[in-house]
């Protein structure tokens, strides 16, 4: 039986328009990524202006300028159904 590992990665963005790149490692026992959630202390800015590119194992999963609002959860969307 597979167990679930929840892992959080934090990225600090200090200035407007700043581009940030980060590399993160998952537990070596992880076989499948079940979901990705993007949050911010300024949800309004993330929703209206936030974008990112996400690569996993060298493969682009979310292209450059992919809108953050597509990876967010809210009161109307249960966490189980977020990307």
How would you characterize this protein structure?
This protein is mostly beta strands and about 80 residues long. The chain has a domain at about 45-80. Helices cover about 10% and strands about 20% of the residues. It contains one helix and two strands. β1 and β2 (about 60-65) form a beta hairpin.
Quick recap:
The protein is mainly β. Helices cover 8% and strands 18% of the residues. It is globular.
Topology, pairings included?
Elements: H1 43-49, E1 51-56, E2 59-67
Antiparallel strand pairs: 1-2
Oligomeric grouping of the chains:
single chain
How large is the radius of gyration? 14 Å
Give the topology string: H per helix, E per strand. Answer: HEE
- Please estimate the helix content: under 10%
Strand fraction band?
15-25%
Number of strands: 2
Distance between the first and last residues' Cα: 23 Å
Q: Provide the structure class.
A: mainly beta
Poorly predicted runs? none
Q: Biggest sheet, strands in spatial order?
A: 1-2
List key phrases describing it.
mainly beta, two-stranded antiparallel ribbon, single chain, 1 helix, globular, 83 residues
């Amino acid at each position: 039986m597979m167990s679930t590992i929840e892992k959080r990665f934090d990225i600090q963005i200090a200035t407007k328009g700043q581009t940030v790149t980060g590399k993160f490692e998952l537990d070596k026992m992880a076989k499948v990524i079940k979901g990705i959630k993007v949050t911010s202390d300024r949800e309004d800015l993330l929703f209206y202006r936030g974008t990112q590119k996400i690569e996993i194992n060298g493969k682009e999963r979310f292209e450059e300028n992919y809108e953050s609002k597509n990876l967010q959860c809210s009161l109307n969307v249960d966490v189980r159904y977020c990307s």
